[in-house]
Amino acid sequence: LVTFRLRPRLEGDDDAVDASNRGLLVAVNASGRAFMTHFVVDGKFVIRMAVGGAMTEMQHVQDTWELVREKAEEVGALQNERNVR
């Protein structure tokens, strides 16, 4: 199980960061190329991706990570690669 969230551009704007993460989750799932879920921990919206299929290969994980980056750019949430952790 991999959990992640976009990092805030500015500290203290938790609602905007959560909204960006919600938008990212919707965009990834709408692509039909991957399906992720979410949970809230310490009041923060976090995306989670299960990588547990017996047929999953490293290329699948890399392709999904690229999809996350693409969709983060599309929703305007990615300034640079350090924003996704």
UniProtKB/TrEMBL annotation:
UniProt GO molecular function: carboxy-lyase activity
Keywords: Decarboxylase, Lyase
Matches recorded under InterPro entries: Aromatic_deC, PyrdxlP-dep_Trfase, PyrdxlP-dep_Trfase_small
Gene3D superfamilies found in the cross-reference section: Aspartate Aminotransferase, domain 1
CC annotations in GO: cytoplasm
Keyword Lyase: yes
Protein name (database record): Aspartate aminotransferase family protein
Species: Aegilops tauschii subsp. strangulata
